[in-house]
Amino acid sequence: MRVISGTCKGRPLKAVPGTLTRPTTDKVKESIFNIIGPYFKGGQALDLYAGSGGLGIEALSRGIDNVIFVDHNPKAVEIIKLNLKNCRFEDKVEVYRNESMRALKAIAKRKLKFDLIFLDPPYAKQRLEDEIDFIVKNDLLSQDGIIVTEHDANVSISSSIDNLSCYRQEHYGDTGITIYKMM
């Protein structure tokens, strides 16, 4: 696993040990950023099920200004911090150990808005539509913002949720990617 492009191109990233975290493969990550970027002129991002931090770190490497990383697994939080240190991004991030909905509620109280949100939950624990609904109802996505979801390829999620519509859907083996934008 590595950073694909940008200021940290080629930098290796450590994975979370064990089987609880499923890292996004380099192929899928590259495809996602080719669709949504490939580069950014600033902005704020949220990596809600951060795992090793690969998606948020890739966004930072490609020009996003700041990222909030959230993961419930203490080992994942430790690996995220290590990967951020190796990429020298510590001053551009906040890292939290928290459950996804509790984190979203805390973020909503801060009235933050994101240009890019990654939702890559464990396949067995997906509540993507509920989380996206919360994000929209609490105005956490900027007007031109994008939500990138990663899910089991066999899972079908709605083509529209509130005022978001499916911008693009792709499948890579057993991984499905659904990207939402404001209508």
TrEMBL record:
Biological process terms in GO annotation: rRNA methylation
Keyword annotations of the record: Methyltransferase, Transferase
InterPro entries to which the protein is assigned, alphabetical: DNA_methylase_N6_adenine_CS (IPR002052), RNA_MeTrfase_RsmD (IPR004398), SAM-dependent_MTases_sf (IPR029063)
One protein family per Pfam: Cons_hypoth95
Transferase recorded as keyword: yes
GO MF terms held by the record: methyltransferase activity; nucleic acid binding
SUPFAM superfamilies (alphabetical): S-adenosyl-L-methionine-dependent methyltransferases
Cited PANTHER family: METHYLTRANSFERASE (PTHR43542)
Protein name from the UniProt record: 16S rRNA (Guanine(966)-N(2))-methyltransferase RsmD
Natural source organism: Anaerobacillus alkalidiazotrophicus
